[in-house]
Every structure is written in structure tokens, then in C-alpha cells.
Amino acid sequence: MKNWIIFIISFVLILTIGISVLVLWEASSPFTKIEKQAVELAISSDSIKTADDAYVYNGNKPYVTVFGVDEEGVEKAVFVPITLDEKSIQIVRLDEGISEEEAISHIDKKDVKEVLHTKLGYEEPGAVWEIAYINKSDKLNYVYILFEDGQWWKRILNL
């Protein structure tokens, strides 16, 4: 009887772990697919020659931000809409704006407990850095800083 109980508990535990892994794998599949399509579109539209990184940015309109280098060796960020509309692609040269480190330096370090992520995205005023962080009061905060000049665009505090 004891062996049956151990077998059933082991079986249920392995089944739970297997289903959890499968669910997590399938949940990330749409992001992986759209990122791959956006990279292909950015390259085929001659915006960049090679792509280094890509991620989904969910702002007012969702974009895939693709980082890469053009034929002249200039580093660029290409913002491809989720709709994959080639006419709506936006491009910025990374040397014409502030870096990720400079964007982080614009937030109040005294209040930051942990920076969760920093993403370059595209919004109404143009390219923006989205910085998500936890403050000393354990509240979630989002700060949006303009890529062009490092000015504050929007803050969402204490969520």
C-alpha cells in the first residue's frame, strides 16, 4: 500500500511539472513568432542589415523593437508594429539619443530598490525608454524618458 501511495504522489508531481513546463513553453510562443517575423521585416525593408536583439514593447500601440546594424555599420533601433505594416516602421539611430544607462541615471536613485527592466519603445512623441522599477516602499513604478534628449515624458508611480 505504501508503494502505491509513493507511486501516485510521484506520478502526480511529475505530471504537474510536465504540464507547467508545457504551458510556459506555449505561452511564450506568440512572442517568439512575432519577434522573428519583425526581424525578418526589418531586414527585408533595408532598415538594418543584421539584427542583434528583438523584444515586444507594449505601449499605446504594440511594437517589436529590433536592434541591429545597417550596411554602413550604424547601430539602429527599428520599431515594427505588431501588425507588421511596413509603412508604419519607425527607425532611430542609437547614437542620436541617450543610452540605456543614461536613461536609468535620470530616475531618482534614492527611491529605487530594484530596476526590473529597461525597454526602448515607440510612443506618441517618438522613441522612449520605459524603465520599470520597485521603489523603497515595494511599489511598482514606470518612468518614460524621451530617447532624443532624456527629458521626462510620463511617470506612473506607486502601483
From TrEMBL:
Name of a matching Pfam family: TseB
Transmembrane region(s): 6-25
Domain Cell wall elongation regulator TseB-like residues, every copy: 37-81
Keywords: Membrane, Transmembrane, Transmembrane helix
Domain of life: Bacteria
InterPro entries: Cystatin_sf, TseB-like_dom
SUPFAM superfamilies xrefs: Cystatin/monellin
Protein's name in the database: DUF5590 domain-containing protein
Species, as recorded: Ureibacillus suwonensis
